[in-house]
Amino acid sequence: MVMDHNIINDKGRIKSTLKGELYTSPTIFQLEKENIISKSWILVGFAYEVEKPGQYIATKVENENVLIVRGKDSVLRAFLNACRHRGAKLCSDSSGKTGAIRCPYHSWTYSLDGSLIGVPNTSHCRKELVNNENYGLESVHLEVWHGMIWVNLSENPKSIEKSLDAQILERFGELDTFSRYQIHNLQVAHRKEYEVEANWKLIVENFQECYHCSSIHPELTATLPEFRSGVGTQNAVGGGATFDDKVDAFSINGKGSRPMLKGLLPEDDRTYFGMTILPFVFINLTPDHVIVHRIIPIGAEKSKVICEWLFDPEEIAKPDFDPKDAVELFHRVNLQDFEACEWCQENMGSKAYKDGGILVPIEQHVSHFYDYVLEAIGMKIEMSNK
């Protein structure tokens, strides 16, 4: 039986998902690289990691190697990690500290502000090259937002406020709740990386809905019993979930002695908030720590997810600090979610999913994410006429 999505949508009972090809097609993935990855604010690290002059982070965004470095003037800057001479990668380590940026190939040297300051064995053209802005490192747009470092490869990106603050307003209806967690004062105590054999969009839509929670998340629903209903914290503006009466902390055993994060109010205690920062970041707020997920799309059918658990550095410094009780809870949730995404990915190319699947009312807020993707890659009209 062929489902008439237009009739069903008109009745308001269910909505259609994206077509299966949008999760498998290399052509679609190329459109996403050009119109989403290369034009969005991408989370690459935390400001405290490059707090001192000369400290740097080297990473990759789309096909570009990017270098984030703190200058001697204490200004944080981002550059393409490529020598202007012959294109060699300047910094190969993922992080470090340096007084100047020296190319390992021909020893061209750049100051921490990106200007070219050294070109050996070029007396005949040295004056033409050194301190010439045409030969300095190519800049990349960088912003620090709530202590997180974001870069944008496009020439004229939207402001960080329009891109990210706007999403916090959509999630909470105000900015104060998110700000109270003071992420800029937290540090990563634990980091895990996951290889997921699934398209990045499956990971996003999975995180946005809780219809699956009672089926695959026994530990999470034991902590947040409201999730058994299929309604998550992203179903409504300002939504949060309350801990079970037997639970004292967001941890695998429900126990914990860490104090609430500085800045939180009494009403923030025993409450969890989840949110999506499109396109590739999830942020989970709990009373004593924050969990941040970063998705890195690898291909049309493969993704990497970096998950980081952030705590108050004063707690981290205590001799008996051990975050594994908190880490284990969401680590299990991650494994369960990513396996479910892989179940779906295996059938995205099936003729059963050629025209997509369906969203029942309890998960229809995910359709806003579909609209975002389709508009970005220029397929909105085609899909709306499905």
Characterise this structure.
- The protein has 386 residues and is of the alpha+beta class.
- Helices cover 26% and strands 24% of the residues.
- It is built from twelve helices and 18 strands.
- The protein has helices spanning 5-11, 26-35, 126-129, 160-172, 176-180, 200-208, 213-216, 218-223, 313-316, 324-345, 367-377, 380-384, and strands at residues 15-16, 42-46, 55-61, 64-70, 76-80, 95-97, 101-102, 109-110, 116-118, 139-145, 148-152, 187-196, 241-242, 271-277, 281-285, 290-299, 302-311, 358-359.
- The strands form four sheets. It has a seven-stranded antiparallel sheet, with no helix packed on it.
- A hairpin with a 6-residue loop joins strand 7 and strand 8 (109-110).
- Helix 6 (200-208) crosses helix 10 (324-345).
- The model is unreliable at 1-11 and 381-386 (pLDDT under 50).
Could you tell me how far the N terminus lies from the C terminus, measured between alpha carbons in angstroms?
16 Å
In N-to-C order, the SSE pattern is HEHEEEEEEEEHEEHHEHHHEEEEEHHEHH
In terms of structural class, how would the helical and strand content be classed? alpha+beta
Radius of gyration: 23 Å
**Helix share bin:** 25-40%
Beta-strand residue percentage: 15-25%
